[in-house]
Write a structure and sequence with these properties.
- The chain is mostly helical and about 180 residues long.
- Helices cover about 80% and strands about 0% of the residues.
- Helix 3 runs antiparallel to helix 4, helix 3 packs antiparallel against helix 6 and helix 4 runs antiparallel to helix 5.
- The protein starts with a helix and ends with a helix.
């Protein structure tokens, strides 16, 4: 009987220990996300982006770097896939701009994919360069519409989202290079 009570006590102790450990880990993860997202231009966008990915809960900074790049790759791939089907006026300038954006997004996708591989190898200075190149391609797609005749990019919202996603990666990588 005493042996059985001791077994239950050990089981209860281990269950409480695991429960306490999971609370501590979650609190630490939330604190890390708060630190990262407070540095972003949009705290809410950053936090919802990272929280909505199920891999985030178990990730350390290295994992968050890979996750943030993967999220960006998904967004860039989505825009790249949609661009050919986005209707634009049949004016040569509009057609030229759309082609330029298609090229920009193709280049951005290649850059972010390489950034992912570079992050997996732990070369965070290389990641910074590649993410900047990828983000600049989205900026190029936005800026081409600011030339005469000025108009709005058909993927303007997407361009801004890619820039915000790149910012999250740069913040995470900054933490990795400083800490």
């Amino acid at each position: 009987m005493a042996s059985e009570n001791r077994s239950w006590s050990i089981v209860l102790f281990l269950a409480l220990l695991l429960y306490y450990h999971s609370i501590v880990v979650t609190a630490a993860d939330q604190a890390l996300l708060n630190k990262i997202c407070k540095l972003a231009q949009s705290y809410d966008f950053c936090l919802s982006t990272l929280r909505n990915d199920p891999r985030t809960a178990q990730a350390d900074l290295r994992g968050l770097s890979l996750i943030s790049i993967a999220i960006t790759i998904d967004e860039v791939r989505d825009v790249s896939d949609r661009l050919p089907n986005i209707p634009v006026p049949n004016h040569p300038v509009d057609q030229q701009r759309k082609k330029a954006c298609q090229t920009d997004y193709s280049d951005a996708l290649a850059s972010f994919q390489k950034a992912y591989q570079t992050s997996a190898k732990g070369d965070y200075w290389g990641v910074i360069d590649l993410v900047r190149v990828g983000a600049n391609k989205a900026i190029d797609c936005e800026d081409i519409y600011k030339r005469d005749p000025i108009s709005v990019s058909p993927v303007s919202t997407d361009n801004h989202k890619v820039i915000q996603l790149a910012e999250i990666t740069l913040i995470v990588v900054d933490f990795l290079t400083r800490h």
